[in-house]
Amino acid sequence: MQVFHTKSKVILTCNKRLSPYLQEEVKSLGYTIVRDFPTGVELNITLTECIKLNLNLRCASQILYCLKSFKANNPEELYRELLDMEWEELIDFSGYFSVTSNVDNPTITTPLFANLKVKDAIVDRIKEKKGIRPNSGSDANKAVVHLYWKDSEADIFIDTSGETLAKHGYRKIPGKAPMLEALASGVIMSSQWDQKSPFVNPMCGSGTLAIEAALIATNRRPGLFRMNYGFMHILGYDEEVFFAERRILKEQVIKNIDLQIIATDLSEDAVDVSRKNAKTAGVDTLITFEVCDFADTQVPEGGKGVVLFNPEYGERLGVHSKLEATYKRMGDFMKQECKGYFGYIFTGNPDLAKKIGLKATRKLEFYNGKLDCRMLEYELYDGTRRPEPKEAE
């Protein structure tokens, strides 16, 4: 099974509503999209090409390389189809693998049973051919096999990522209610920020938005922070391909950049966590951190920059009545201190959003976990907005 050099269906998954930004990334890397859907895209590429994608993509979660598509009506048919595959050519008999799945079949009451049938088929096949049973379990840090099974249609994949790509590897201290790195990337990509003008992030929490902004502006890719992927544990893997791609990542980093990124928080602990995370990401010198109330954040003048808030939503943190006043203060701050900027508030609470007191020019849809969220965009005009010129009669 020459998977590293054979083109096949490859599914790139992402969190719901991040697909448009994932599509932008994939196209910018020179790949042709076969199909797109709300939680990802489909390509037709080799497993070797998956290596580049794993290292470069900010918005993706998993990159799945299809080994076989087949029909299976029940667990026994599934087992027989998988037993017929040359697993001994893919997984080291002395190695370790795990199984994940997405199953919607009337004969299956729990995905764990489907996972067990996949595992049994792989182990039985390798034992038959090599005389030794490989180890298996739930850890995703070695070879990972993924089953997609809907009704009678099944696909079996190699999960070339292993651990999710949505975590970018630099955030050693998450802080309270953190925004996932992939979501933060999508949020920044959806904004009007030009990656040159000021980026201001009051209420920075653990610093994810400010750090992702610095990473995007300097072209630092997630692959710089990670040294283990699922593809590394498939037989036939050539580590020189990985190291060659990693060298390209290092060469692409923009080192000399004039950039103003400001991150503030009322919590001294939050700012300390942000600084440490930024240092791990290698962008601590590009971000000015300060402990202060958001209303005291120093916004650079003459700006065509971006100010971006990710406040509490009132779901798990904070008190609702207190947050109403906070949201009103955010609106006042943007109106008074951020003239000429684009202002953004990311929230999962539409009632609180009404307290901002400004009219949004755009409402962008996201999910934060399972929470339906909006990023509200405000064009903060410097002075009085010029009226549109009338057409000559």
Describe this structure as you would to a colleague.
This is Putative N6-adenine-specific DNA methylase. InterPro entries: RlmKL-like_Mtase, RlmL_1st, SAM-dependent_MTases_sf, THUMP_dom. One of its GO terms (molecular function) is rRNA (guanine-N7-)-methyltransferase activity. Keywords: Methyltransferase, Transferase. Helix 9 links the parallel strand 12 and strand 13. This protein folds into two domains: 152 residues, 2-Layer Sandwich (VC0802-like), CATH 3.30.2130; 169 residues, 3-Layer(aba) Sandwich (Rossmann fold). It is of the alpha/beta class. It contains ten helices and 15 strands. Helices cover 30% and strands 23% of the residues. Strands 2-3-1-4-8-7-5-6 form an eight-stranded mixed β-sheet.
